[in-house]
Design a protein that fits this description.
75 residues; mainly alpha
């Protein structure tokens, strides 16, 4: 299956939506840091950042290959 521009646009929208949702979690974690709970705040920021990056990488892989999550499986 080749590159489909319509699917690519939907994937980019999904990446942006996920990033905005997770950025709210990052702001919440920054609040924990300001309240003195540095460990939990940093953990939350790192976790949310990693989730954003992983989700974006997975979606970009789907765009580039035209395949879903079964990319690693051999048919």
């Amino acid at each position: 299956m080749g590159f489909n521009p319509r699917d690519a646009i939907e994937s980019v929208k999904d990446i942006a939506t996920n990033a905005v949702e997770r950025s709210a979690d990052i702001v919440d974690s920054a609040g924990h840091i300001l309240k003195g709970d540095v460990s939990a705040g940093v953990e939350g920021i790192v976790s949310s950042s990693m989730h954003i990056a992983t989700h974006a990488a997975d979606k970009i892989k789907e765009i580039a290959t035209g395949r879903g999550e079964d990319f690693d499986e051999i048919d």
